[in-house]
């Protein structure tokens, strides 16, 4: 099995439904190699949903001690998922530097300053315009932020899209993707294959659900080799979901290993 590098618990992520103990028990039952707990930290989140989208980081590290004790010999890693906004890179870089995280994911959950999960009006624009703008913002995120390891779900924008064929593809915005992928490579960051995105496409009844072939081919062609597998699980029944299928798919492009991070250093395991 693999190390699942992207997961949330109900202790510090308001949208998660599993406790840390439930996560650990499920990981052990599946004989996974390890798991990273990457709680949501959305600075200045634009929607009032009744609960904060940030958490007390010292409290998280204190809680993690008991989780490690419960996990025993099973590897569990300290992580965080940061929500990008244009004014936050310096704040995030300085904040993360103060704490001994194992892994830091940088994600963008917003389009035009709003989360498509709540604000579906963004999809009233044509698909090419929406996806191009989103990937340009992803490129900007990678270029402006420094103190992170993994680029989370580049395909978040297509999760809630109502288009007939919502999958995001390289051919829709090749220049934006080249900028984005080149930034990841030049800064030695990791491109996440988020299998929650695959699962959401499957649940829509779509067949073309795996990451676009041209995106992965172009990433490899530009020199990108750093790939991680994250289920983005909010409940224990989706841990490592579609990992075996995704690993086989990645091998077909020439990728040989998946990355995970310990004390902010990259480690790898075979796909």
Strand and helix map with partners:
Elements: E1 3-4, H1 20-29, E2 34-41, H2 57-71, E3 76-83, H3 89-97, E4 103-107, H4 127-144, E5 150-151, H5 174-186, E6 190-194, H6 195-203, H7 213-221, E7 227-230, H8 243-251, E8 257-262, E9 265-270
Parallel strand pairs: 1-2, 2-3, 3-4, 4-5, 5-6, 6-7
Antiparallel strand pairs: 8-9
Helix pairs in contact: 4-5
Concise account of the structure shown:
By secondary structure, the protein is of the alpha/beta class.
Describe the structure.
With 271 residues, the protein is α/β, with parallel strands linked by helices. It has a single domain, classed as Metal-dependent hydrolases (TIM Barrel), CATH 3.20.20.140. It contains 8 helices and 9 strands. It has a 7-stranded parallel sheet with strand order 1-2-3-4-5-6-7. The protein has a two-stranded antiparallel sheet with strand order 8-9. The termini are close together. The model has no long low-confidence stretch (mean pLDDT 97).
Assembly form of the protein? single chain
Give the termini separation.
Answer: 9 Å
Strand content: 15-25%
H/E series, N to C? EHEHEHEHEHEHHEHEE
| Parts with pLDDT < 50 across at least 5 consecutive residues | none
CATH topology name, in short, is TIM Barrel
Based on CA atoms alone, the radius of gyration comes out at 17 Å
Spatial strand sequence of the major β-sheet = 1-2-3-4-5-6-7
Judging by the overall fold, what is the CATH architecture? Alpha-Beta Barrel
Mean pLDDT: 97
Number of helices: 8
User: What is the number of E strands?
Assistant: 9
Supply the CATH superfamily name.
Answer: Metal-dependent hydrolases
**Portion of residues within helices:** 25-40%
Taken together, the total number of domains comes to: 1
CATH class: Alpha Beta
Kindly name the structural category: alpha/beta
């Amino acid at each position: 099995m693999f190390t699942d590098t992207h997961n949330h618990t109900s202790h510090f992520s308001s949208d998660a439904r599993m406790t840390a103990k439930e996560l650990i028990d499920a990981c052990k039952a599946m004989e996974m190699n390890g798991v990273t707990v990457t709680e949501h930290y959305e600075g200045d989140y634009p929607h009032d949903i009744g609960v904060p989208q940030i958490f007390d980081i010292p409290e998280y590290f204190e809680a993690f001690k008991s989780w490690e004790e419960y996990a025993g010999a099973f590897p569990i890693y300290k992580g965080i998922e940061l929500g990008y906004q244009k004014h936050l890179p310096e704040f995030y870089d300085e904040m993360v530097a103060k704490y001994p995280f194992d892994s830091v994911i940088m994600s963008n959950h917003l389009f035009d300053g709003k989360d498509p999960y709540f604000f579906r009006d963004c999809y009233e624009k044509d698909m090419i315009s929406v996806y191009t703008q989103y990937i340009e913002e992803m490129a900007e995120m990678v270029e402006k932020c420094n103190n992170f390891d993994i680029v989370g779900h580049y395909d978040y924008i297509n999760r809630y899209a109502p288009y007939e064929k919502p999958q995001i593809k390289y051919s829709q915005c090749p220049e934006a993707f080249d900028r984005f992928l080149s930034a990841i490579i030049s800064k030695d960051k990791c491109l996440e294959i988020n299998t929650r995105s695959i699962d959401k496409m499957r649940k829509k009844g779509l067949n073309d659900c795996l990451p676009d072939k041209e995106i992965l081919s172009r990433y490899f062609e530009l020199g990108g080799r750093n790939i991680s597998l994250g289920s983005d699980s909010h409940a224990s029944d989706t841990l490592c979901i579609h990992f075996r299928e995704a690993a086989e798919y990645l091998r077909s492009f020439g990728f040989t290993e998946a990355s995970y991070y310990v004390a902010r250093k990259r480690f790898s395991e075979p796909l």
